[in-house]
Write a structure and sequence with these properties.
The chain contains one helix and five strands; from the N terminus they run βββββα. By secondary structure, the chain is α+β, with helices and mostly antiparallel strands. The chain has a five-stranded antiparallel beta sheet, covered by helices on one side.
């Protein structure tokens, strides 16, 4: 099953070019570099849904917390810790 994991954008690089925007996204204690080209309106502090290394949508903080909690309960978050 494919899942989109919610995370919070901590910082954004290459802000001048939407095609190559990347952000450091926090998934609790785990940080990953994520492609932001599909969410050009995303800004630092926003919560995004991430699938296969790319943010595919923006969600509010309450929704992100709820989904992350469900995924953690199901044991689906451990995959993020693997590189």
């Amino acid at each position: 099953m494919c899942l989109a994991i919610p995370g919070k954008i901590i910082s954004i690089s290459n802000q001048l070019d939407d095609t190559f925007r990347f952000g450091k996204v926090s998934f609790g204690s785990i940080m990953k570099e994520i492609n932001l080209c599909m969410v050009p309106q995303a800004k630092t502090g926003d919560y995004v849904l991430v699938h296969v290394g790319a943010a595919i949508g923006i969600v509010d903080e309450e929704e992100a917390a709820k989904v992350f909690s469900y995924l953690k309960d199901m044991g689906e978050v451990e995959e993020l810790d693997q590189d």
